[in-house]
Inverse folding.
């Protein structure tokens, strides 16, 4: 069973706005065993809309439209579909009353134009939209299904979940899509690919997408199957073999963020953490605290951009900064140890580096970052050389620092961080 | 002159990956006076590709494809276009030598399959791609132009800039798109719309898109015109009238980020800033330092999540926290004043609040945030009640704190922050 998704709206043809509904919808359809074979984005010109819908009807089994159900003359999804399928539009009194009621609830009178939203093609099923005025519509014709949904994401999702999923589920094929999400940090994409590629021929029915982001690499092995137990077994096996191939670089087999993993590890170890950051400017603290409940393990942090603050707030000796430079192993060690002592945390993390674009020298180039991590046995340190622009360097540095915390607990015997 | 953009690649039909090339391409085409009337996303199935390209050829003047120029059997853009336009594919020796040379440079031998990337439809112009192996292709037939570009963004942009823009410019219509980008913070989208809507009928030739993001609202007035001076005059006028309608909430008429605006204001005033954050967890420091050269005005910050650190690092009296609570006007004032004194900054900013999801009470609900700002005359404070989830509350709080710094310098007479 194949689907096409048509996003309707002139604003989606500007440089400013992206269609995001179709990603969510694709995920939901795939879970039901329906493959998306084409996506289209059209404005509100009647000819373009007609041509897109007619094209979709010629090749997909189910056509989803998102948008174009509003009250103005530009909202022509209903008219276009009705015309193409040879159905008349009629006013649905119940929908009309619902829209009027909705306006009354907000103490307003319904403008006349909103009556358009109560027009329904003959034979269509109305899909209630408790979050907005325009209901969704489900229309079957000559073996095809057209599902018209509003473009507002919360309305689209609400209608899909309450009205569409169960209807599709009854007619969808037995074969469904099953997936896993593995996450890796500290390896380049090409190295991840080299490590997992030998597994592909062993699992010819699974397909794996590798996505590289600044905060790590995601692997999505997936399999279409009519047998849930079989799919789960195959995915468990491939995930476990990928885990062996990726080793300590794998931080989640369940699609968690690194922040979530670190939060779990700190909580399980009843440990607390404090950070002293220079070039990351607060990004490490921000990431450690974007997890709900982080006050259980995060005590606080110091963003010591100036050398004076490295000394006054964290106790890094001014002579050390003078002799070794603010960006040095020694200062990273002193930051990690100092912030740990001043806050009483189990673990202290120190970061100092050159995010650029200025400030680099031949000995200490842009991208050089020292990360220190201290516990009751003292501090350790490691230097990294990240490439890219300021933003990228700061993200890599905070990512690597988070990973140092994970490694500190999981691999205490290996060289740290 | 109308264009259609076709993004090619099965991964773009998964829930995981979004086509982003088309947004950039749309912006560039609009500047040249070319409107995008349709966008399509197709996988690599030959039938689907043929149907999408043939559909596009039936209605657009210029068809851009992104992707499907790789070396494998799945990369069928060349074949599809050649077949539809009735052109033979021939091997281009110069391209082949270039690809071989590229592999040699990376000390590798060219795999045989890469020779496919040297296949060129008869009559096509080859568009050099110094950043990758697959060149772009430009093909004219029966009044239509087909431009085939690789899907890798950096390669696509490079080829467009070096080879495509000038070619299109010679044939594009005289009418071009001119735009402005205004940015607003501190007003809800509906209020922004209410304020600027009365201007729309006065400028019937311009169209304005309003985009709401967590970090503020963007207004994009735009006009298609063959007369650059006229367009500039109209946009200057509408931007200036929008500015009057939006007042102190407007922070940029040039599309700058609030961070950039604050950086400029601090630099112009030769002022320095230091921050003491609780609920934002480092996000304010992170945003102040994501601007290159921020060490000129940002001294440092303290993320004092625990009450002990509010006292030990910033000098907030423990009795004050005990009597008023960590989330209170008094503690926000003490944080702002304390961090200013301890760092010697011109301006100190203090933030304390409840980001949730836990920790709220009827008197101090989730979303309550106090923001203090201190200068040599002492600290002032204001309380806000933000709605939404943890992430949203933290972003709104850091956004409002940044805006307090802007307002501190621009509107010293009005109530602060």
């Amino acid at each position: 069973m194949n689907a096409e998704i048509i996003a309707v709206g002139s604003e989606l043809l500007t440089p400013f706005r992206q269609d995001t509904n179709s990603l969510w919808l694709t995920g939901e359809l795939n879970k039901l065993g329906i493959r998306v074979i084409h996506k289209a984005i059209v404005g509100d010109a009647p000819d373009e809309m007609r041509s897109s819908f007619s094209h979709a009807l010629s090749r997909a089994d189910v056509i989803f439209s998102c948008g174009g159900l509003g009250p103005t003359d530009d909202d022509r999804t209903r008219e276009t579909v009705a015309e193409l399928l040879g159905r008349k539009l009629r006013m649905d009194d119940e929908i009309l009353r619902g829209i009027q009621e909705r306006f009354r609830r907000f103490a307003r009178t319904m403008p006349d134009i909103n009556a358009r939203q109560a027009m329904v093609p003959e034979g269509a099923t109305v899909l209630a939209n408790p979050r907005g005025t325009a209901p969704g519509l489900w229309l079957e014709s000559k073996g095809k299904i057209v599902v018209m949904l509003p473009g507002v994401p919360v309305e689209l999702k609400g209608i899909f979940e309450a009205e569409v999923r169960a209807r599709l589920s009854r007619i969808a094929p037995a074969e469904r899509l099953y997936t896993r999400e593995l996450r890796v940090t500290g390896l380049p994409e090409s190295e991840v690919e080299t490590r997992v590629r030998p597994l592909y021929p062993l699992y010819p029915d699974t397909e794996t997408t590798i996505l590289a982001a600044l905060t790590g690499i995601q692997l999505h092995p997936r399999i279409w199957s009519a047998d849930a137990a079989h799919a789960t077994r195959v995915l468990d096996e491939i995930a476990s073999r990928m885990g062996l191939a990726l080793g300590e670089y794998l931080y989640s087999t369940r699609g968690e963020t690194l922040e979530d993993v670190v939060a779990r590890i700190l909580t399980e170890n009843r440990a607390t953490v404090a950070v002293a950051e220079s070039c990351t400017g607060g990004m490490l603290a921000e990431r450690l605290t974007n997890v709900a409940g982080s006050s259980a393990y995060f005590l606080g942090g110091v963003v010591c951009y100036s050398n004076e603050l490295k000394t006054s707030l964290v106790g890094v000796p001014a002579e050390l900064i003078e002799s070794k430079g603010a960006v040095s192993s020694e200062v990273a060690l002193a930051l990690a140890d100092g912030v740990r002592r001043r806050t009483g945390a189990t673990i202290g993390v120190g970061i100092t580096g050159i995010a650029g674009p200025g400030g680099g020298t031949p000995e200490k180039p842009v991208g050089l970052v020292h990360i220190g991590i201290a516990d009751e046995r003292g501090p350790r340190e490691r230097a990294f050389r990240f490439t890219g622009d300021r933003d990228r360097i700061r993200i890599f540095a905070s990512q690597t620092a988070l990973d140092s915390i994970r490694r500190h607990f999981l691999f205490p015997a290996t060289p740290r961080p």
In short: The radius of gyration of chain B is 28 Å.
